[in-house]
TrEMBL record:
This is DUF3574 domain-containing protein. InterPro entries: DUF3574. The lineage of its organism: Bacteria, Pseudomonadati, Pseudomonadota, Alphaproteobacteria, Hyphomicrobiales. Pfam families: DUF3574.
Length: 65
């Protein structure tokens, strides 16, 4: 997890800002992976009354030794 600061325009049109956490997930590009990530986002949004929970998908080459 990476600490960050988020800012967005809420549904009421007001600018909102708050501390945030960025979670970096390295995973295979499969439909099941996207479905699991979306389920996590939906659960987090409901549990913490968030208007939105972001997701960025970026292709990468990773290697672990």
């Amino acid at each position: 997890m990476i600490a960050g600061h988020g800012q967005w325009r809420g549904a009421a049109g007001r600018l909102r800002a708050e501390r945030t956490r960025i979670v970096l997930v390295v995973a295979e590009d499969r439909p099941e992976t996207l479905a699991a990530l979306n389920a996590i986002r939906d659960a987090y949004r409901a549990a913490f009354a968030q208007e939105a929970v972001g997701l960025v998908l970026s292709p990468a080459c990773a290697s672990f030794r």
